[in-house]
């Protein structure tokens, strides 16, 4: 009987709990219904099996099987080209149909850059200048991209874009003046050699720290966008610089702020002595573009026409649509990274010779011109002789020129020189006068 009484009490408690739960459901039902109604206004009513994700951070579908995304989802991003290695147009519809004068200008600028490189490289080896970086093998990336830009577009270079500046009209005298740090140098002798810059030509002065120009270019492109000035910004860098954190910041800012910016990556195979297979595991640099929401393309950097076409279209759309583009130009650095590097320590002579002899941007363009009767051996010899003469004249002039005045060390930071800098400048002059036998001031401009 006691047990039966206990079960009766439990039954009564159970019925009471059920009634309370029912009452609670009834009380909360209006609120739940209101939530569902509100939610129906925000998204389409999908069936449970077809319900789509609503996370704000991605656009995707649900799956019910565990599977990781493979790093290379396709066999490899294709390389866009216009010319074969023998200079033949592969698809006539992709021929930019440039005039003879334009193509000859391409060729002369590429070969003039090559001649300047050889003379200044030897100059450094003879102790005449302190440092140099050649552009051997990458001339097509410079000229092809520079020709596709407008003159008022802003250029941020890394340190191997001398051809871009040359195409824009930077004279040989100023190239030499910068490398010699003489009184004609626009930078007044304050920079290392090959750190060029020209305000008149919209070429931002190169700086040594790697990849700093990438977020700077994003900021400049955002300013250009706000001005609505029909300008674009182009930012050059190597595949090694793309491993810097600055690259992530620049890519992300430019995409989210919708900036008219062209990221131009010269993938030349090596970050100084580090080959690409030790730099990254993904499919090059172009593969990173979609992850940042950028339209991307990979081009044959040794094909000046392919580079021209890609840059021209990217420039047009960047300005018209206010969005960034990523161009990965596949090329090869034939020369040493700089005069501080010996590339024979990390790559074979046969490897270098292949790119120098079999797949060089200059020889490819020369094949194209020769096939059209625009160039022959006599013109080649005449131009090589003339270009060397032009470079040597600028070279000899730069060597004779005096160094910048020492007191320029204290100018161009403040509009008016500060008392502290005045004190430092006066102290410098007293020191130079007291120990003048140790300072050849006659080599400096007055």
Automatic annotation (TrEMBL):
Its cofactor is thiamine diphosphate. It is found in: Mitochondrion matrix. Residues 108-406 form the Dehydrogenase E1 component domain. GO terms for cellular component: mitochondrial matrix. Together with BCKDHB forms the heterotetrameric E1 subunit of the mitochondrial branched-chain alpha-ketoacid dehydrogenase (BCKD) complex. The BCKD complex catalyzes the multi-step oxidative decarboxylation of alpha-ketoacids derived from the branched-chain amino-acids valine, leucine and isoleucine producing CO2 and acyl-CoA which is subsequently utilized to produce energy. The E1 subunit catalyzes the first step with the decarboxylation of the alpha-ketoacid forming an enzyme-product intermediate. The branched-chain alpha-keto dehydrogenase complex catalyzes the overall conversion of alpha-keto acids to acyl-CoA and CO(2). It contains multiple copies of three enzymatic components: branched-chain alpha-keto acid decarboxylase (E1), lipoamide acyltransferase (E2) and lipoamide dehydrogenase (E3). Belongs to the BCKDHA family. PANTHER family: 2-OXOISOVALERATE DEHYDROGENASE SUBUNIT ALPHA, MITOCHONDRIAL. This is 2-oxoisovalerate dehydrogenase subunit alpha. The gene is bckdha.
């Amino acid at each position: 009987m006691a047990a039966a009484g206990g079960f009766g009490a439990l039954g009564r408690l159970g019925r009471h709990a059920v009634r309370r739960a029912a009452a609670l459901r009834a009380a909360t039902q209006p609120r739940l219904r209101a939530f569902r109604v509100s939610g129906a206004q925000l998204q389409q009513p999908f069936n449970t099996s077809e319900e789509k994700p609503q996370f704000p951070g991605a656009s995707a579908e649900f799956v019910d099987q565990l599977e990781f995304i493979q790093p290379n989802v396709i066999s490899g991003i294709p390389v866009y080209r216009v010319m074969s290695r023998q200079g033949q147009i592969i698809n006539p519809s992709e021929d930019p149909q440039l005039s003879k004068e334009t193509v000859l200008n391409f060729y002369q600028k590429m070969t003039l850059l090559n001649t300047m490189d050889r003379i200044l490289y030897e100059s450094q080896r003879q102790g005449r200048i302190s440092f140099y970086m050649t552009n051997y093998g990458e001339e097509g990336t410079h000229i092809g991209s520079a020709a596709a830009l407008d003159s008022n577009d802003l250029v941020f270079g890394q340190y191997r874009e001398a051809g871009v500046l040359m195409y824009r009209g930077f004279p040989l005298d100023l190239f030499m003046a910068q490398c010699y740090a003489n009184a004609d140098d626009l930078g007044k002798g304050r920079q290392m050699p090959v750190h060029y810059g020209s305000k008149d030509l919209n070429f931002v002065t190169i700086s040594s720290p790697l990849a700093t120009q990438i977020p700077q270019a994003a900021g400049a492109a955002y300013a250009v966008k706000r001005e609505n000035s029909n300008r674009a910004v182009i930012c050059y860098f190597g595949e090694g610089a793309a491993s810097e954190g600055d690259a992530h910041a620049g890519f992300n800012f430019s995409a989210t702020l919708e900036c008219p910016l062209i990221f131009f990556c010269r993938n030349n195979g090596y970050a100084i002595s580090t080959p690409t297979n030790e730099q990254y595991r993904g499919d090059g640099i172009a593969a990173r573009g979609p992850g940042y929401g950028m339209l991307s393309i990979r081009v044959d950097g040794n094909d000046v026409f392919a580079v021209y076409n890609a840059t021209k279209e990217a420039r047009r759309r960047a300005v018209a649509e206010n969005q960034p583009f990523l161009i990965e130009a596949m090329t090869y650095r034939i020369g040493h990274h700089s005069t501080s590097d010996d590339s024979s320590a990390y790559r074979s002579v046969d490897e270098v010779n292949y790119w120098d002899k079999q797949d060089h941007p200059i020889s490819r363009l020369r094949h194209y011109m020769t096939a059209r009767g625009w160039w022959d051996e006599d013109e080649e010899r005449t131009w090589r002789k003339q270009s060397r003469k032009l470079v040597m004249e600028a070279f000899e002039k730069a060597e004779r020129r005096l160094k910048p005045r020492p007191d320029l060390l204290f100018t161009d930071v403040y509009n008016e020189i500060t008392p502290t800098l005045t004190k430092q400048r006066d102290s410098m002059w007293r020191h130079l006068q007291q120990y003048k036998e140790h300072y050849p001031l006659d080599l400096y401009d007055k």
